[in-house]
Every structure is written in C-alpha cells, then in structure tokens.
Amino acid sequence: MGTQLSRNSYHNSSRGLSTARSQDNLRRTQGPVIYQPPYQAPRQGPRPRANSTSAIPPAYRSGPYRATRPAYPQEIPSRQNRTRAPALRPSEDQITHAVAHRLLTSLAAMLSSHGHDITIFVSGGIINVLLLGSRQFTYDIDGIVEDRRDWSIIDPMIDAVAQQFGVSGLWLTSRLESFPPMGSQRATLFADSIAQNEVVFRAPGLRLLALPYLWSIPMKLIRLQSSATGKPYDLMDAAAYLLRLLQREGWESLNRATLDGYRSRYALPSLSRRVVMDLNAAYSQIVNYGGPPGTI
Fold this sequence. Notes:
Elements: H1 7-10, H2 20-30, H3 79-84, E1 95-96, H4 97-113, E2 118-123, H5 125-132, E3 137-138, E4 141-144, H6 150-165, E5 172-173, H7 182-196, E6 199-203, E7 206-210, H8 213-225, H9 234-249, H10 256-265, H11 273-290
Parallel strand pairs: 2-7, 4-5
Antiparallel strand pairs: 1-3, 2-4, 6-7
Helix pairs in contact: 4-6, 8-9, 9-11
C-alpha cells in the first residue's frame, strides 16, 4: 500500500497539481483510499473560506464542524408542520436537537432519582443531530446496553417521558439489540466504543456513547446496498462520520484495507465498489460545501 492521499493534495490548485494528468498520477502511485477527490476545474471568482458562514444556511452553522451540506428536501419540515407543532412535540416524530436534548434530560433525571447511572451505546441519526449537527432531525434513537436487563429499568421511564412531552413511545428503542451481527460482536463493540469515548449526551443518570465510527460507516453503506432498508440520508450520514473520524484520529485519509479490516472485525457483510465510490462523492460534497479548516 502506498502513501495515503494527503490533506494538502486536495487543494491541488495551490500546489501546482491542477491538471487531470497530475491527479491520475497520484491515483496510480498512492493506492486505493476511501476518499480520492476527482479533478475539478478552477472555480470562477473567489472561493469562500472554509470557516466562512456566508454561504452556509443558518441551520448548519453549529456543531463540531459548523456545516456539512444543504438538507435533503425530505428532512425539512413543511412550514405548516413547523407552525402548528407544539414546541416539544416533533412533527411526524421528528426529533430535533432541542427535542432530543429535552427528552434525554428528562430521562436522565428519572434515572438519577432512582439511583441509576446507565450508559446507552447509540448509532444512527441521533449522532448526526445531537453531536455532529449534520442533520436537522432524526426519527428515533436506537441503542444497546451492556446488560440487557437495564432495559427493564429504562423502558417504563421512556414511556413516562413520551407521555410528558406528547411524543411517540418509540422515541428511544432497543431495536438495535436484535440486529443480526450484533450478537457475537457485542463485547468488541462496547470495548471499542469506550475507547473511542465519543460522548453524544451526558447528564447525571444517563450517558450516550457513539458506537465506533468504523462500525457505523460500513453499517450505513450496507443499508444503502439494500433497496429495502436504505434511506435517502444514509450516504451523507456516513460521509459525516468519515469526516469526524479523520478529525478525531488526525488521519489524512482512510484506505479501503482499513475499512475492510474493521468490517471483518465486526462480522459485517462486504461492501461493493460502487457504494464506496458514492461515499467518496458524498465526502467531496461536504468538504466543498464548507468544512472546517484542516480537513481533507
């Protein structure tokens, strides 16, 4: 495996690598990577700085990297729903950042009042909404716990919180526990999640930790390979996880061998070349749209 694609090589127009031939040479000599940006002709006019908010919608000016992309049309509640929905009741079970925080804060208070302090390991949209700020809302929170008996403590409180705020009782679910690859890999996932220590939410009585990004990225891509389970937002979610992973680890890129190694570690199905190419394109959209200084 050759040298990874460097962070600086992406901005090749300032490095004297502004031709398609130079890009082709890089691909031949540096080996397969998850993200290899295609050649782009020089932009007309000044390019907004990466940390500029002038071209970023207000909804995406928060979170660790402040902006990721324009929202999908499916993710933007209609004006009618926004004006009619009560302040704490998501329209059509849409859990926004503010709603998620209040629901979880109430659940944490209930757990704490009964002497509990429970960690839920979460995956999916709640990470994008509550931690990364790359989506406006999710539809539910999916998690697993080290001791499944904890659900007998949590479930009645989930229902109590749902009644308190008038939301569906499925706002927090344990459906992830029944996912097929989860059974034999639970101990590995818990250990890797604790080592990663990506805290999504914390209050006395409750902590939400993100499951490993190197598990979540292939999980999103696997869903995309299935027309029955893939969602419109899965690809951009995976690209947001990739950006966060590279930022946290200080990596310049993530090569295919590393991704496949962790996919095997978690006993996940193989990924097609097409879906990895789609991830490359989605990641390029995030960076071009206005990622933070220092990203690829």
